[in-house]
Amino acid sequence: MKNPYRLLTAIAFLLSSQSYSQEVIRQQSCGNDFISHQADSLKNLYGNEGYVLLKEASINMESEFEMPVIVPLTQGSWYQFVFIGDYTSRLYEVRMYDWQERMVIFRQKKWGDVDGNVIVYSYVPKFSEFHMMKPVQVNKQKKKNLCGYVMLFKRTNEDTGSVTPQNQDLPDSSGLRGNKCLL
Question: Which domain, by its residues, includes 46?
Answer without folding.
Answer: 27-157
